[in-house]
Amino acid sequence: MFASPTETDIAPGGSLLGLLQRGRGDGWLHALAAPRAEAVAAVDHCVLHDPRHDWQLEHRSLYYARLYAELDAGLDAIAAHLADPDDLLLPDEERTGLALSVLGHLTGLTHSSGSTAARLNTSALALLRQYAVHGANWRWALDELAVHDDDAGLAAIGPAVLARFPAGEEGDAALAAAVRDAFEPRPWHLWARDPARPAQRARLARALEAGSFDRWQRQLRPPGPRPGWSVGAVLAWAQDGWDSVPRQWREAPAARCLGAVAGPGDRPELLAAAADGAPAARAAALRHLAERDDPDVCPLIEAAATAPDADVARAALTAFTRMCGPDALAHARRWARRDDALGTTAATVLARRGDPGDAPAVLDALRRALRRHGAQAEELRPLIEGAGRLGIRGAVPVLRRVYRETASSRLRGEAAGALAVTDPSFAAGFAVECLWDCEEDTRATGARHATTVDARVVERLRRLAADPAEQADVQTAVRGRLGGRPGGTRAPSDRGA
After folding, report:
1. DSSP state of 340
2. Smallest Cα–Cα separation from 19: which of 403, 368, 354?
């Protein structure tokens, strides 16, 4: 399961397990210094019990894959996890997604890196192929193989994967849906061209054709608003989604549609909907008016932000963050004094668009959010960005605490970026460990700022520059530092006379 930031299965930030769960660079360095068995057990625990708060925004798989290679670890724990009977009882992606992603990165290790890389490469490929044939989360494994396996390996497992779809109308429909919705279509097209299996080719040709026809039909009959709809029809469509089961929150698409159909004469209707309309219609109208900096929308936002309906209140706060004009800043400076969600949102607006005079309000909101909700609070991110943008030196203690304690690697990266601007000791401190962080943006921050007086830094920069798995932004920053240009920027001589 994915861990909640408040769950107790996230170990303390100073322990080896806690550091590895957070993906910190210090975790990497501690793992290499710890007894090997202890370090491998900690990495296994992280991979088998995904510690991320949001797997779509946080990265761990390359970090853990690199540690497996560095520790010369085996994959027995991952193999047992994938083969466990729970795989059939709990087939959700949450249970096996991180393990499959780690295996995918391990298959990308080059054999030139040594015998450990070759062994892990072979073992990871075998596990992915086996799981694609027998596992519940087989689509994820197949996507990993689509990127990393060769044609011969994919062709060999084709019949077994297709056997998941029994012959008949129901099986053919399921196959067509799987082909249509595949994230990585390469295996399906490869199997559809396999000259050694004519029956397979014919069946997949029909599935591919059915998937294409289905997409064409959906494009011809879109379920949403169409040209000619009125403002009232769009608001009713938004409310229909709210009333449906399961509920569909159409605030954003409805606001975009209003931008296309609403004219000056529709303003009274929109203001009325924003004042006391049904929840979804009210949210869509507030967002539409806020995006156009309507002069009368701020009082409506203030009223909606304290409404008893939590969805309406959230929509009002979101709408306010999308305002860009001077009137929004004036209201933000007044509301930032409030001790509620609207006050916090107003402070985030100042953090993103305010001037240096707004620094005290941003710092107060940052301290208040950390004190009340801890180092995992979602509202910390824009405030941390603002501390860096406004260069608030007084925020350094707060930023350091967030960096050390947060279980969110994304939030830690934001704190690192703000510390790079505000903390004079960053280059010789946190910037060094950032080079081993799980997040590419944080590694890039470390590459731009870490002092090369530390002997580990130059060696790590060289390894990152030579690693084909490293992201382009990180390598750009690394090569800039290795080329003698602080911050990874171009030297003046590079620009020409």
Report:
1. S
2. 403
